[in-house]
């Protein structure tokens, strides 16, 4: 039983996800943290692809990489939040590293003990084709309602963050926009 290419790929993607995750929480610039989050979530999607969970991988890319990270970056840009290092956030990192490292070691020990590297057979009907068919036949209406709700939330966020939209012109009394 030697090391297979899939094992190397899993280890590589796991290392990329772990390294990018550490950079997400350790970088001082929020925009760079958002971009490292894209790398971490993309590596996680790659892990799902290697594990033959194609649907979960593409949902990961579409929802997390495509929507959540873009929402985070838009929120930073539209709120005009200060970008860069902040003096009130310069606290000792050793406590955070100690707690994070302890939690990581504890979680790794728990997972290793729970699974012991065993393979779990999947029940039939759990492939990407079957799940996609079920989503777009049975759940198409809630899927579309959710997309309209997300669009309304995005438009509302833009309107709330831009006070100049819909404001009355003080000289003419006419509304802009």
TrEMBL record:
Superkingdom of origin: Bacteria
Ranges annotated as spanning the membrane: 6-26, 33-51, 57-76, 97-118, 138-160
Main location: membrane
One GO cellular component, as annotated: plasma membrane
EC class of the enzyme, as a word: translocase
Annotated compartments: Cell membrane
4Fe-4S found in the keyword field: no
Enzyme Commission code(s) on record: 7.1.1.-
Membrane topology note: Multi-pass membrane protein
Catalysed reactions, semicolon-separated: a quinone + NADH + 5 H(+)(in) = a quinol + NAD(+) + 4 H(+)(out)
Entry GO MF terms: NADH dehydrogenase (ubiquinone) activity; quinone binding
Keyword Transmembrane helix: yes
Gene3D superfamilies referenced in this protein's UniProt entry, alphabetically: NADH-ubiquinone/plastoquinone oxidoreductase chain 6, subunit NuoJ
Biological role: NDH-1 shuttles electrons from NADH, via FMN and iron-sulfur (Fe-S) centers, to quinones in the respiratory chain. Couples the redox reaction to proton translocation (for every two electrons transferred, four hydrogen ions are translocated across the cytoplasmic membrane), and thus conserves the redox energy in a proton gradient.
Family indicated by similarity: Belongs to the complex I subunit 6 family.
Protein's recorded name: NADH-quinone oxidoreductase subunit J
Biological source species: Planosporangium mesophilum
Lineage: Bacteria, Bacillati, Actinomycetota, Actinomycetes, Micromonosporales
């Amino acid at each position: 039983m030697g090391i297979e290419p899939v094992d190397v790929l899993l280890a590589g993607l796991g290392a990329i996800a772990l390294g990018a995750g550490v950079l997400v929480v350790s970088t001082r610039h929020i925009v760079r943290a958002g971009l490292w989050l894209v790398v971490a979530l993309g590596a996680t999607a790659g892990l799902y692809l290697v594990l033959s969970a194609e649907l979960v991988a593409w949902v990961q890319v579409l929802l997390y990489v495509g929507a959540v990270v873009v929402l985070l970056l838009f929120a930073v840009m539209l709120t005009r939040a200060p970008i860069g290092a902040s003096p009130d956030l310069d606290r000792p990192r050793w406590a955070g590293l100690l707690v994070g490292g302890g939690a990581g070691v504890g979680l790794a020990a728990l997972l290793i003990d729970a699974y012991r590297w065993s393979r779990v057979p999947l029940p039939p009907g759990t492939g990407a084709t079957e799940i996609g068919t079920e989503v777009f036949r049975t759940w198409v209406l809630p899927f579309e309602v959710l997309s309209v709700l997300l669009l309304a939330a995005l438009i509302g966020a833009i309107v709330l963050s831009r006070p100049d939209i819909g404001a009355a012109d003080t000289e003419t009394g006419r509304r802009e926009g």
